[in-house]
Design a protein that fits this description.
Largest sheet: 11 strands, mixed
CATH topology of the largest domain: Rossmann fold
CATH class of the largest domain: Alpha Beta
CATH superfamily of the largest domain: Alpha/Beta hydrolase fold, catalytic domain
Helix content: 25-40%
Structural class: alpha/beta
Shape: globular
CATH architecture of the largest domain: 3-Layer(aba) Sandwich
Radius of gyration: 23 Å
Number of domains: 2
Number of helices: 18
Strand content: 15-25%
């Protein structure tokens, strides 16, 4: 969702240093070709760099080319370039033509795609010691395009005055849709089964893009939502608050803060908690004005018992513990220990990784051959956070105005209610307020595209999403839509692919979903 990905995802503040780097991987491989460039089709456009690689996977060796470069975003009426969008694409060359094609991105909303790219999807994976091959990559089932929105990564507006066009939800959805069109045209990929994948706020972007493309009769095979919920269904706030309880119970079980009778069997405990949340807690929130003092005291007692939260900190008037208060108060009275908004099993700040920016720089500039002097940018966008942190930091005029963070320029304009909802989000940390005012993007897209399928992945320990809640939302859509939606819960947090076993499971599930949803074609997909 829009904010849960943002606060601790970027931990590096280092400027890129000029250091001696290892020999590029393509240069050291026996028989490997050096980087090649694809000549621009339009004078003034930038060339695309292509390198060639191979990867051993459980389904056999993949020979693939990596394309790295920037495509222009042009105004349709005039052809004027308003932005240059950076991407990395991986295209398998030894499995035949017309393979499925998946466009993927992170969220923030002003984060580049580097996390799903280098920790989950890509054929090379970033570890604490550097990049290694990733045999679990879904590349065996689909070609991949990793997309960096404007003002992230190496993507930039063509002129400063154009930036505002892209730093809002409607503009973001339109620009992303245009990039997909331009890429498919540029590389002759119009007939490949089309998938889009987004994580966190990127799931909102994916949902919006799916409706945008469906309204333009662009055939899509599938949408994959990672830790973004099932956005656009406008669940009630009471429902969203009631569905927070199951993840919190799992976190309390992890820290052994539940009563002894609830510490014997986690699956049974979660069943009990889920039943209470739906049969007792949700009706209480829906009719809160009718509750007696005794009813309120009982709810407070049960809520604390099932979530490990101090009962004295539960507001008896609202009977809701918002996300910010829960994360900060779980270990009360110890104010120095807090829960992570990315994963309830993590406490405190994510440690700084001082080599991360150099590893990413080396991979993009040397291994993939995109040797630009632009800085690779991306920043935190948590509401109210006024600090600036980036993977790389470039030149800022001095003297001159202070850098105005991209995230602080962002506008949630998906609906008229969004500004007020954003203020509630800032006050509580509850993304449900903003999610509740999103248009029904996915439902609209599925109605327009009768063959469109959706895959939803959620983390058991993600404090801002609900495995059980999404399951109930999907079931309520009716058999016609529910039968085209898969929802899976993983033993991880917001970035569940950071758990080794769950990363492999998620990769396998995504690959199977893509293979099934792409349907029969001119070739057999592994």
């Amino acid at each position: 969702m829009a904010t849960s990905m943002a606060r601790r995802v970027l931990a590096v503040v280092l400027a890129v240093a000029m250091v001696a780097l290892p020999v590029p991987a393509w240069a050291s491989a026996v028989g490997a070709l050096p980087p090649q460039t694809l000549t621009p089709l339009v004078t003034g456009d930038e060339p695309i760099v292509v390198t060639h690689h191979s990867l051993r996977t459980p389904s056999g060796t993949l020979e693939y080319e990596a394309r790295a470069g920037r495509l222009p975003i042009r105004v349709d009426e005039t052809g004027e370039v308003h932005a240059y969008v950076f991407f990395v694409a991986y295209v398998v060359t030894n499995r035949g033509a017309h393979r499925p094609l998946t466009f993927a991105w992170n969220g923030g909303p002003t984060l580049p795609s580097i996390y799903v790219h280098t920790e989950f999807l890509g054929p090379r994976r970033l570890t604490p010691t550097g990049f290694v091959d990733n045999p679990a990559t879904p590349l065996a089932a689909t070609d991949l395009v990793l997309y960096d929105p404007v003002e992230t990564g190496f993507s930039r507006p063509a002129k400063p005055e154009f930036a505002a066009e892209f730093l809002n939800m409607k503009g973001d959805i339109a620009a992303t849709s245009e990039f997909i069109r331009a890429y498919r045209e540029r590389f002759g990929a119009e007939t490949q089964p089309l998938f889009i994948l987004g994580e966190s706020y990127g799931g909102w972007r994916a949902a919006g893009v799916s409706e945008f493309l469906a309204n333009r009769n662009v055939g899509m095979a599938g949408v994959i939502l990672i830790s973004g919920g099932f956005t656009g269904t406008r669940p009630s706030l009471a429902f969203s608050h009631a569905m927070d309880i199951q993840a919190r119970a799992a976190g309390a079980f992890y820290y052994k803060r539940l009563p002894p009778e609830l510490m014997r069997d986690r699956a049974e405990t979660l069943r009990i908690v889920d039943q209470w949340a739906t049969s007792t807690y949700l009706p209480a929130l829906e009719h809160i004005a009718e509750l007696s003092p005794q009813d309120r005291a009982s709810i407070v007692h049960e809520l604390a018992k099932f979530t490990g939260f101090p009962p004295g900190l539960v507001d008896p008037n609202t009977l809701v513990v918002n996300t910010s208060d829960y994360l900060a108060g779980f270990f009360a009275p110890d104010k120095g220990r807090t829960l992570s908004e990315l994963d309830l099993r993590i406490t405190g700040e994510e440690p700084v990784e001082p080599t991360r920016s150099l590893q990413i720089s080396h991979y993009l500039r040397r291994e993939l051959g995109y040797n630009t002097d632009l800085s690779y940018s991306g920043e935190l966008t948590y509401p109210g956070d006024v600090s600036y942190r980036a993977l790389e930091s470039g030149y800022v005029p001095t003297p001159g105005p202070a850098r105005r963070r991209t995230g602080l320029q962002w506008s949630y304009n998906q609906s008229d209610e969004a500004p007020a909802a954003l203020e509630k989000l800032r006050a509580t940390g509850d993304g449900a307020y903003l999610d509740a005012v999103n248009p029904p993007w996915i439902e609209n897209a599925m109605a327009a595209e009768p063959n469109l399928r959706v895959f939803v992945a959620l983390g058991r320990f993600d404090p801002t999403n609900s495995c059980e809640g999404v399951g109930r939302i999907v079931a309520g859509l009716g058999a016609g839509m529910a039968g085209r939606i898969e929802s899976r819960c993983y033993e991880g947090g917001h970035m569940m692919y950071r758990d080794e076993g769950e990363r492999i499971r998620l990769s396998d599930d995504v690959a199977k979903f893509i293979t099934t949803a792409s349907g029969p074609g001119p070739e057999s997909h592994p």
